[in-house]
Specification:
The complex is a heterodimer of chains A (about 325) and B (about 300). With about 325 residues, chain A is mostly helical. Chain A has helices spanning about 1-30, 35-40, 50-60, 65-75, 90-125, 130-145, 150-160, 180-215, 215-225, 230-265, 270-280, 285-315, 315-320. The longest helix of chain A is centred in the last third of the chain and has 38 residues, at about 230-265. Chain B has about 300 residues and is mainly α. In chain B, about 70% of the residues lie in helices and about 0% in strands. Chain B has helices spanning about 20-25, 30-40, 40-60, 60-65, 95-130, 135-150, 150-160, 165-175, 180-195, 195-205, 210-245, 255-260, 265-270, 275-300. In chain B, helix 3 (about 40-60) packs across helix 14 (about 275-300), helix 5 packs antiparallel against helix 11 (about 210-245) and helix 10 packs across helix 11. Classes of the chains: A mainly alpha (about 325), B mainly alpha (about 300). Chains A and B meet through helix 1, helix 6, helix 7, helix 8 and helix 10 of A and helix 6, helix 7, helix 11, helix 13 and helix 14 of B.
Chain lengths: ~325, ~300
């Protein structure tokens, strides 16, 4: 088991290195000059070119791309993630501030999606072809189809502006002392909408997975030996039907993250999504690189955790 | 996933001679699929809605009440009235006209990007599944990397760095959304590889490339239409999200996403619903209709999968 986990981790290393190399090369080759974006236009009047050249040399941007990459890898290996071009702060510090809000948002959204989607999917499968099944099919397609930003605007309109129940943006009330309920009220709309968009996927998946299991022979056996319908469903069908959901959760993490980028923008949520957008538009290479690495680690890690928990739940996987 | 009532293929009528015309449409696999599709109520609704939206987009110059780009500051954010049925925006442009013209953008991006992504997936997937070995390994690992990364983030980066326009959006979506199709085609190709008609072609001395092009690809096309349909919906959502973030179609050209982007202030949200409600509803209805069609196609083309 441990050997298997170790092998999985070792396999992810070249994938990870490949992602950083590709991003690095692509970002450097793309048009747009970070130095010109950093320099205050007022200073550009006099001997601007010489100044720009000096800043470029300071940042190491005058070197060929391969040398820049090797230098960057060397620095990262020593634990130096570099400094942001935008506000000259260490990237590591910026990242530390941003990780928790995004994790909180995504974690809650995932929970909402599972709690909303899975029971609906199970119910739809148990009552196949009933009106419940029909309504849940239409509903789950709807959650996938309505864009989160429109839903976000509509929710702000209804819950914040009309009913005055929930705050429109931010993670807590500025200036107020830390308070759990205040935090929770700020979290409801962004996490709820992000989760809502994903719930349909989970419902569809839970439904088809359960329907597939229900047709298996061992369930006929369970019914034949006189178990109640309830016992058959709860003890024999559900556990096996829900195992594949673990993989689905792992696969959905990147999707969830992309959703968070949009949601953070609407609700001014101070997370990694907002940071990503600003670092892209400002050509803030150091932040952009570290950000890409963070996503890669997050994704590889969530896939790994999904695979391991899969192996724990389903012993057949380990044998391979 | 079944949405409509169970549509079992009709049992062959006993009185064959009595209804020859009907029998002919029922018996071919394509005819049966078409019949199942026609019975799928949600899919039919989707076809109707998309048909109307496509007609409106196609005949936009004839339908739109006024020029979608005409700025008239005298009509600054006016509520709906007789001249402007859905009011005017912050530059005094007619919202209904912009909405109709934006449909052209959404449908074009959706169709072209989806066809591009699906074609790339089709080619790579059939090579991967048919040849196997190291070719397969390389293609599948690449697919894994692409799937592991949040494609919206990658597309945002590419579009922002290269410069936002309709062309870059289409390229971005097309070049990064192919892995889903690739995986599906590979799976189908793996199972087809051992089938008799492929073996027969090989026994007749047909070169492998010709087998892929002439036998493999045609057989995977019909299940692939389902993937392609969902890809259209996905591409439309992506374009809308990009334009909403200000990284997509550039104003003054109208897109449903950038119309919502311009409505992002609390004042507009609170008191000028005609600026944000119509484009949002337009995106949702279009994407939902396409997803209904995709669901119907899946039920119709693969009766076994009607789970």
């Amino acid at each position: 088991m441990w050997q298997w986990i170790l092998r999985r981790i070792l396999i992810s290393i070249p994938v990870f290195a490949g992602i950083t190399l590709l991003t690095f090369v692509f970002v450097r080759l793309a048009p747009g000059d970070p130095v010109r974006m950093m320099v205050n236009p007022e200073y550009m009047a006099g001997d601007a070119e010489a100044y720009i050249q000096r800043v470029r040399a300071d940042l190491g941007l005058d070197q060929p791309v391969p040398i820049q990459y090797v230098r960057w890898v060397g620095q990262v290996m020593q634990g130096n993630l570099g400094f942001s071009y935008q506000d000259r702060r260490p990237v590591a510090d910026i990242l530390k501030e941003r990780i928790w809000p995004t994790t909180k948002l995504m974690g809650t959204a995932l929970l909402v999606a599972l709690l909303l989607g899975v029971p609906v999917g199970i119910l739809a499968a148990l009552k196949q072809y009933s009106w419940i099944d029909y309504v849940s099919a239409v509903l789950s397609l709807t959650t996938i189809s309505v864009p989160s930003f429109f839903l976000g605007l509509a929710a702000i309109y209804v819950f914040s502006l009309r009913l005055n129940l929930l705050p429109t943006s931010g993670m807590f009330t500025a200036g107020a002392p830390p308070d759990f309920w205040d935090d929770a009220r700020h979290l409801i709309l962004p996490a709820g909408i992000l989760g809502f968009n994903l719930a349909g996927q989970f419902a569809r998946y839970a439904r088809s997975s359960l329907l597939e299991v229900i047709r298996q022979d061992y369930l006929t056996t369970a019914r034949a030996k006189g178990l109640s319908a309830r016992a058959v469903t709860l003890r024999h069908a559900l556990p096996n039907a829900l195992i594949p959901l673990i993989t689905l959760v792992g696969v959905q993490i990147p999707v969830l993250f992309a959703g968070a980028v949009v949601i953070e923008q609407i609700f001014s949520w101070p997370g990694m999504g907002q940071l990503a957008l600003s670092s892209i538009t400002q050509r803030d290479y150091p932040v952009l690189m570290v950000f890409t690495m963070a996503i890669a680690v997050l994704v590889l890690l969530s896939n790994l955790v999904a695979d391991i928990s899969y192996a724990v739940v389903d012993p057949r996987i380990r044998l391979r | 996933m079944s949405a409509a009532a169970p549509a079992m293929p009709a049992p062959p009528p006993l009185a064959v001679a009595a209804q020859p015309a009907r029998l002919r449409t029922v018996r071919t696999p394509a005819g049966m699929a078409l019949r199942r599709f026609g019975r799928h109520r949600l899919a039919m609704f989707g076809v109707l809605v998309i048909g109307l939206i496509a007609l409106a987009a196609l005949f936009a110059p004839l339908i739109a009440p006024s020029d979608p780009l005409k700025v008239d500051l005298a009509f600054f954010r006016k509520p709906p009235n007789e001249v402007h049925p859905l009011g005017t925006d912050s530059a005094g442009r007619d919202v209904l006209s912009r909405l109709i013209y934006a449909g052209q953008v959404s449908l074009t991006v959706g169709l072209v990007a989806a066809v591009m992504a699906t074609s790339i997936g089709l080619v790579l997937g059939s090579i991967s599944g048919h040849y196997g070995g190291w070719v397969d390994a390389v293609i599948m690992r690449t697919t894994d990397v692409f799937l592991a990364f949040p494609s919206l983030m990658v597309i945002i980066t590419v579009v922002a760095l290269v410069g936002p326009s309709m062309g870059t959006i289409i390229l971005g979506i097309g070049l990064f959304n192919w892995p889903t199709a690739c995986r599906i085609v590979r799976g189908l190709a793996l199972s087809l590889r051992e089938q008799d008609f492929i073996l027969a072609a090989r026994a007749l001395g047909s070169p492998e490339g010709r087998i892929v092009a002439r036998h493999l690809i045609p057989s995977v096309l019909s299940p692939l239409t389902v993937t392609a349909t969902f890809a259209v919906a996905q591409a439309i959502l992506t374009e809308a999200a990009l334009s909403f973030l200000g990284l997509g179609v550039r104003p003054p050209q109208a897109s449903w996403g950038n119309m919502l982007n311009e409505a992002q202030s609390l004042t507009i949200l609170e008191s000028m619903p005609w600026l944000w409600l119509p484009p949002g509803v337009a995106i949702a209805v279009t994407v939902l209709a396409i997803n209904f069609i995709g669901d119907g196609l899946r039920d119709a083309l693969d009766p076994r999968q009607r789970l």
